Amino acid sequence: MIEALLDQFGEGAVLAGAGALTGLLFGATAQHSRFCLRAATVEVSNASFGPRLAIWLIAFCAAVLFVQGAIALDILDVSASRQISATGSMSGAIIGGLLFGAGMILARGCASRLLVLSATGNLRALITGLVLTLVAQASLRGVLSPLREDLSGLWLIEGGQGRNIMSYFGLTPVLLSVLAGIGLCLAVVLAQQRAVKGTHAFAAAGVGAAVGLGWMLTYAVAEVSFEIVPISSVTFTGPSADTLMGLVNSSDLPLGFGVGLVPGVFIGAGAMALLTREAALVRFGADTPMERYLVGAVFMGFGSMLAGGCAVGAGMSGGSIFALTAWVALFCMWLGAMVTHVILTRVHDRRATLA
């Protein structure tokens, strides 16, 4: 089937279609489930294992289950993915992860959440997301790229086994699938205890399924294509930057997975918001200062390019294939977010006391 589609429409169009399909699923389920890493880190910072943490855990465990299950069934091979095969940067994962975590607290959402909220009419998220995308592009190929390269080069590790956590501990896809299944069941129990709606929990699993779908579709195309096709899944800062720059700089946007993913997420989230009557215009206000959001956008834009992905690109997609730098970046995102939230809370409480 994939071969027939490639013969009829070409590689770029098929990849764009795969990205759009993956994006539609991710956007709709992320919007309905309220999937948000920032919200989960805030709950943990407040010593509360609440509904947002349950949603994130369901999504993450589902992603691992789908991906590792597919690998165990021998219908997916991610060894050629950039997160595993290419040279990685531990310094980039650490510094970029910390910056990204701090940024998503300041901007009240990570890159994926900002895109989803933009589709519901949230103008704060739209402006913040555009700034994030511009900074990401500047970090990848523009004025900030020398700084990113210098920081990335502080601590490099070789690709292959050096970036594969499974090889360090002798883990197998079957074992990880079982562990992910157990984790998913425990996360569902936590969701029930925290009164999470069943449809929200189911949608959270759909977020994880979208990550698995992205890996499987790009792998399927790569297997039959005569050209080298990067195996990838859901990520946002890189594709958003490429899409925006392509629309601005060229009348002919090169088709690819990321080009389909971004509008797919936007359409999926917008359609779900309209269906559930949650679409509404949201603007900056006195209690939501623009400068805080913009600083957060700068931190996330630079941090994501340094860390090798955003909270979904590194945390979910990279985490599900057990890439070492992705797990380090995810840990640092959690750490950066929690520390930033604690600091902001203490500053707010001190100001309130003085007032």
Topology, element by element:
Elements: H1 2-9, H2 11-33, H3 37-45, H4 51-72, H5 82-85, E1 88-89, H6 90-106, H7 111-119, H8 123-140, H9 145-152, E2 156-157, H10 165-169, H11 173-193, H12 198-224, H13 237-249, H14 257-275, H15 290-307, H16 313-320, H17 324-354
Antiparallel strand pairs: 1-2
Helix pairs in contact: 1-2, 2-12, 2-14, 3-4, 3-17, 4-11, 4-12, 4-16, 6-15, 6-17, 7-8, 7-14, 8-13, 8-15, 9-15, 13-14, 16-17
Question: Your description of this structure?
Answer:
By secondary structure, this protein is mostly helical. It is about 75% helix and about 0% strand. It is built from 17 helices and two strands. A two-stranded antiparallel sheet has the order 1-2. Helix 7 packs across helix 8. It starts with a helix and ends with a helix. The mean pLDDT is about 95.
